[in-house]
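Input (structure):
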């Protein structure tokens, strides 16, 4: 997931986020809702998220919202998580999430 993407930054729910991958599908919302339900039912098990560009993610969005909940393990606590960032933002990432940097 490219954290610099303004559409991703506006995502309020996992379903919103998943709809980004269903572009052009007339059943995008239905498919995204079903996938979201599945992911939440098992806590994200068997899923690895790659969050690319944490340093480019707006600071005002880092403390709340979907991406913050994923990083804090409040959402999808069993998923694998890989976060890329330039070094200057890694301190903030360390403070926000229980991650190895």
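Output (sequence):
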């Amino acid at each position: 997931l490219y954290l610099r993407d303004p559409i991703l930054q506006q995502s309020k729910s996992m379903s919103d986020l998943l709809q980004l991958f269903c572009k052009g599908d007339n059943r995008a919302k239905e498919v995204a809702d079903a996938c979201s339900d599945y992911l939440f039912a098992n806590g994200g098990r068997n899923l690895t998220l790659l969050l690319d560009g944490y340093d480019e993610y707006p600071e005002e969005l880092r403390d709340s919202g979907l991406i913050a909940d994923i990083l804090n393990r409040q959402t999808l606590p069993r998923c694998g998580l890989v976060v890329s960032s330039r070094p200057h933002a890694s301190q903030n990432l360390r403070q926000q999430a229980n991650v190895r940097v």
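Notes: The chain has a mean pLDDT of 86. Residues 28-41 form the longest helix (14 residues).
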